[in-house]
Amino acid sequence: MTDSLTIAGKAYSSRLLVGTGKYKDFDETRRAVDASGAQIITVAIRRTNIGQEPGQPSLLDVLPMDRYTLLPNTAGCYSADDAVRTLRLGRELLDGHSLVKLEVLGDKDTLFPNMPETLKAAETLVKDGFQVMVYCSDDPIQAQMLEDIGCVAVMPLASLIGSGMGILNPWNLKLIIEKAKVPVLVDAGVGTASDAAIAMELGCDGVLMNTAIAAAKDPVLMAGAMRKAVEAGREAYRAGRMPRKLYAAAPSSPTGGMIGS
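Below the sequence we write its predicted structure tokens.
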């Protein structure tokens, strides 16, 4: 893995992280995850069975922990206390698993993050030994505060959760990327493959998505497209794009040295 993504000391070859909600069944979830190539899979503790309901189908039956890194998340939590309680439950269910995704929502319509409660929860969780990846607004100052608390990755939204609107404020993302010493991953708002590629071209370390894949007409095909987009965007970022110009100062195919000249 010559260009791996490292989170909390562990290296991953894939820079695409995917969610497990909104699929028609666990079989479709598994096939989409396989097509995405993702190695980190996020799961909503409040909405998906990973052992809370003994005897019922479990996500762990199709996405086993010996193959994937599960990332328990706090989707549906609207206070720091609820988020902390939910992730402590997830740690118990997953035998002490400490890598988690924190999100504390502030509004039921937009699902925009409640940053004061997010900061409060992050501080508690880090002190409690969790390795916290955190969904946040695209505010560079608050992203820096989360890093200073000890979060292992910051995950600013591109646009609202489930909106599919793409990256609405690339300038703020660039500011966060320039300052951060931990991975920066776009979380929320990706709608199609070009959105994922743009995020990677901006210099993001990875992209997390769920609805863009699960709500596609063909989720498995879209998962494969997202895999390619993330890889292409990363390669373009590493290659370094040509400068933007209003017009070329010299022709791209100079006449000097042409045959017969």
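The CA atoms of residues 131 and 236 lie 30 Å apart.
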